[in-house]
């Protein structure tokens, strides 16, 4: 018998059943084996510790505001809850922003971009375009940072927030635990939301202060998670409207926008061959990724990860030697989508 009685009756959604994004979060959480003790809005401390959204690792350097536009008025005069767009500057979140600007979705009070410091140049150029669009629409855009993920990894004076690099040793292959997303994406986002909510660091609050608008599309709804704190409610407009990633690309084209770039770190170990070849098309980014890959097996990182050898590519060979042909290039059919699932979850 289940040790934990169910607090809320639920029905597992069937194919074709209409459910909201909030309900999907609940269904996914209940299916994970929590015994039904799941709140759609306020996950308990035990639930958060169970892997929904791990707290960011402690660092000596504070989260910093890199850029803020059109921040007007007194925070004490704010009326809650505020609607805040988590802007990754990729396909889905860019489409959300533009749908909001075009009046197809409810307006937002703020937008936040967490800068890892290692995005492709195309993303930073695209971000400049979004700055202007936000300014014209009267949406305050905040660019926040918790440091440069690449430089910090190589700096012996900085704590290494581990990346999911591919390990090889005499006992077998493995993937290193991922901490970089929590450190460089989620932590600065939450810190800025806490500030906008009028809360001090560590202050508890059960009042709904922030609604986070997240650009997860219908075809990747498995990435939805309950919020980290009780004062936050997550909202997934693309899921609620059954909008997939290719729908976002088509929407931009139909409204006269060029396709937004994919937002991810240059040296993300989650890249597939399709994405590594896109990095290779930019000589500077490719040289940067190869240099970092080489440093994974020497110097500070080599010592930290010994006796294992670490690689950015899943083939566990130096990036410069990796075979970047797709399955189709090799004459094999591929039944799977080549698009990345956006592992950072922002």
Give the CATH topology of the domain at 64-160 and 179-254.
Rossmann fold
Helix percent reads 25-40%
Query: How do the helices and strands follow one another from N- to C-terminus?
Result: HHEEHEHEHEEHEEHHHHHE
In percent, how much strand structure appears in the residues?
5-15%
**Per CATH, which architecture of the domain at 64-160 and 179-254?**
3-Layer(aba) Sandwich
Low-confidence stretches: 1-19, 26-61, 334-343
**Number of separate helices:** 11
Q: Which strands sit side by side, in order, in the main sheet? A: 1-4-3-2-7-8
The Rg value, from CA coordinates, equals 21 Å
- Overall mean pLDDT: 81
Structural class designation: alpha/beta
CATH C-level class of the domain at 64-160 and 179-254 is: Alpha Beta
The largest pleated sheet is described as: 6 strands, mixed
User: What form results from the Cα inertia axes?
Assistant: globular
The CATH homologous superfamily of the domain at 64-160 and 179-254 corresponds to: HUPs
The count of strands amounts to: 9
Distance linking N and C termini: 38 Å
Topology:
Blueprint: H1 21-31, H2 45-52, E1 64-69, E2 82-86, H3 91-101, E3 110-115, H4 121-137, E4 141-145, H5 149-154, E5 166-169, E6 172-175, H6 180-196, E7 210-213, E8 232-235, H7 237-240, H8 245-254, H9 273-280, H10 283-295, H11 299-305, E9 309-311
